[in-house]
């Protein structure tokens, strides 16, 4: 995947209030072309609200938002054709057959093709890409859960979106379907250079797919960086364990690679059973959320 410096999504000081309750406070982040960004956060943190504002489905209370160069509150059809949204699961159109349904939806995008981006995606090629060749002639209502999710993805990308929104894409997937889906998104990003904004509660998914992670807690961004950067900042140090002349040692260090090099330089083959434990994204995430939740409102 190539990431460029072009900012495709720019959120600055975003606020959202439902009635008298503020649910987003001064949310600021950017996404660059070709980047996969995972938006993480506990239930009620404001992820779906943020995504809906960015998609143009919900009006914000304040702040500046630019998505593919336009304000989503005023995005026209041409702008919308450049976005892809993978919804929770396609329940309608059960009597349509997979190929005719995708053909039909693709028709909406034909007028929005550009010199660089042929729209829509050729239906046969799209069906192969999402792995539904065997179901192309079947009615949607006869598809299994995993096959439906593949269809959801096909619906989301039929217009070859420049920016793809995935809101909890693998919730309720079995491990095989989840793994297939991750492969599919990885291929899409690599081949099409699509930019992706993903929300998930699955930290392995975030670690696997995302170049960058933004953590939202109580409507505020509490962290923004790569999984490695967040781990180093929050969990701090790696733990190195080894056995030397029959004795066990444990050492915390900020630079475990250098520590191990020095250990071998000093003791050579006498160092045995070396283990390096890095903080997992899960530990980091839980620490971040705990820290945010224990900070008094007035000091944030
Ligand atoms: N239409 C609405 N009217 C009033 N309050 C709402 C509305 N939609 C969401 N909220 C509130 O806004 C807050 C943020 O909700 P949101 O759905 O954006 O969170 P989330 O991070 O997506 O949560 P989850 O992980 O549970 O999906 C919550 O406190 C929720 O109760």
From TrEMBL:
PROSITE patterns: ABC_TRANSPORTER_1 (PS00211), ABC_TRANSPORTER_2 (PS50893). Keywords: Antibiotic resistance, ATP-binding, Nucleotide-binding, Transport. This is ABC-2 type transport system ATP-binding protein. Belongs to the ABC transporter superfamily. GO terms for molecular function: ATP binding; ATP hydrolysis activity. Pfam families: ABC_tran. The keyword Nucleotide-binding applies. It is a peripheral membrane protein. CDD domains: ABC_DR_subfamily_A. Residues 9-243 form the ABC transporter domain. GO terms for biological process: response to antibiotic. Signal peptide: none annotated. GO terms for cellular component: plasma membrane. It is found in: Cell membrane. The keyword Nucleotide-binding applies. It comes from Nonomuraea polychroma. InterPro entries: AAA+_ATPase, ABC_transporter-like_ATP-bd, ABC_transporter-like_CS, ABC_transporter_ATP-binding, P-loop_NTPase.
